[in-house]
């Protein structure tokens, strides 16, 4: 939630006067035919002129498209840099401490963003960069736990749990729309920051690095887990990371490069989606939140389905592990790529555009039964460092895509369309 609240809140933080005449594409009666039900009883958002103004707009900042793009991408500058740091820290400190403290720092920064926005947009950029650095530690930390806790036969299904971030997006955007309409954009950050700190308290009570450390797990379950993973994983806390072997490994580079394109597409929807929904499709805040978030709820469901099918294919001996990973990697890349290419050629058919939008986001998650699960397959006891290196490469797409939207395109209406067609 704290990673993506800015993607939506920024739509309400910045004056849209400079973009009020930017749209050359008309979608007749779009709110009347699709989302009139989201207009509130006081008619703060009207169907006739599709205005986005709310009674609780708070202060609006006169930030240019370039500044907005920098704010959106600043999270990912340090996010990429901190991947390797997260891999190293996890090897020595364990997942519980690295993941917990990084989330606490991210939550604290969220609470400070409304105050920093009043100072200068540079202060917001600094806080988002700090959030990005802290959040960059989390993925290597999470992957490091998989080799200790999850048997190979259940690994694909477990990988779908990492799509919890999709649920976070799916809940964050509608929540942001509701909060902005009823309380103002500042309360978006107060809410997500408070939830983040509350989550950290639960994490420190419930999470443990290995089954042996857990005080409430049964002896039978410990025995089952250790018997299932003992042949492929060993205690790695304090183990020296073979970085040269990782840096020169063709399979590692194959995973990193393969997922770069998927990340580019995925973050077009995540980062630029709410802005597209507002400035192109002219949805009000609550409709914007719902339609921006629901594809990611669907993507979580699809990730569970894809990972379940992958496990079944392996257990039934229909396909080898390598073939299963390649199949789902291809599905996650080819299908969304073809679908979103069409978006650049859709002018007035809003229903078709939204259908393609939903389906493309849904198929992206097949990667969690493909290349992303393969990271643990090739290095179960070094999954954290390997993921850190892969993410350093493929997550560069997460800040390049929003940056390019501000540099290449001056007209926000066509920004998303051109970016997806380019890639």
UniProtKB/TrEMBL annotation:
Domain of life: Eukaryota
Entry's localization field: Membrane
GO cellular component: membrane
GO BP annotations, alphabetical order: monoatomic anion transport
Keywords from the named record: Membrane, Symport, Transmembrane, Transmembrane helix, Transport
Membrane-spanning segments: 70-89, 98-117, 129-150, 162-181, 187-206, 252-270, 290-315, 327-344, 350-371, 403-422
Main localisation: membrane
Matches recorded under PROSITE patterns: MFS
Residues covered by the Major facilitator superfamily (MFS) profile domain: 1-423
Pfam families associated with the record: MFS_1
InterPro entries, sorted: MFS, MFS_dom, MFS_Na/Anion_cotransporter, MFS_trans_sf
Membrane disposition: Multi-pass membrane protein
Molecular function GO labels: symporter activity
Protein's recorded name: (Mediterranean fruit fly) hypothetical protein
Organism: Ceratitis capitata
């Amino acid at each position: 939630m704290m990673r993506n609240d800015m993607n939506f809140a920024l739509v309400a933080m910045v004056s849209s006067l400079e973009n009020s005449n930017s749209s050359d594409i008309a979608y007749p009666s779009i709110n009347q035919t699709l989302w009139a039900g989201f207009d509130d009883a006081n008619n703060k958002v009207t169907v006739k002129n599709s205005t986005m103004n709310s009674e609780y707009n708070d202060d609006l900042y006169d930030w240019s498209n370039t500044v907005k793009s920098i704010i959106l991408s600043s999270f990912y500058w340090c996010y990429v840099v901190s991947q390797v740091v997260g891999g190293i820290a996890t090897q020595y400190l364990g997942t519980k401490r690295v993941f917990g403290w990084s989330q606490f720092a991210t939550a604290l920064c969220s609470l400070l963003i409304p105050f920093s926005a009043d100072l200068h947009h540079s202060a917001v950029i600094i806080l988002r960069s700090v959030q990005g650095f802290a959040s960059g530690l989390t993925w290597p930390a999470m992957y490091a736990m998989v080799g200790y806790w999850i048997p190979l036969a259940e690994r694909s299904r477990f990988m779908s749990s990492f799509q919890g971030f999709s649920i976070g997006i799916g809940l964050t955007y509608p929540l942001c729309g509701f909060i902005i309409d009823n309380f103002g954009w500042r309360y978006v950050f107060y809410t997500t920051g408070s939830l983040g700190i509350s989550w950290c308290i639960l994490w420190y009570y419930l999470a443990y690095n290995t089954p042996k450390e857990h005080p409430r797990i049964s002896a039978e379950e410990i025995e089952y887990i250790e018997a299932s993973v003992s042949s492929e994983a060993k205690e790695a806390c304090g183990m020296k990371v073979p970085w040269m072997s990782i840096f020169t490994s063709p399979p590692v580079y194959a995973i990193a490069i393969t997922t770069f394109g998927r990340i580019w597409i995925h973050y077009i929807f995540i980062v630029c989606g709410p802005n597209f929904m507002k400035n192109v499709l002219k949805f009000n805040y609550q409709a914007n939140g719902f339609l921006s978030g629901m594809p990611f709820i669907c993507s979580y469901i699809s990730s569970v389905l894809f990972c379940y099918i992958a496990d079944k294919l392996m257990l039934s001996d229909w396909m080898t592990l390598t073939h299963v990973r390649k199949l789902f990697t291809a599905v996650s890349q080819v299908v969304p790529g073809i679908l979103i290419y069409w978006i650049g050629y859709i002018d007035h058919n809003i229903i078709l555009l939204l259908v393609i939008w939903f389906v493309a986001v849904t198929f992206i998650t097949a990667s969690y039964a493909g290349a992303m699960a393969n990271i643990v397959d090739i290095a179960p006891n070094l999954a954290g460092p390997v993921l850190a290196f892969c993410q350093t490469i493929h997550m560069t797409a997460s800040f390049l895509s929003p940056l390019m939207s501000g540099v290449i395109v001056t007209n926000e209406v066509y920004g998303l369309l051109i970016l997806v067609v380019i890639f």
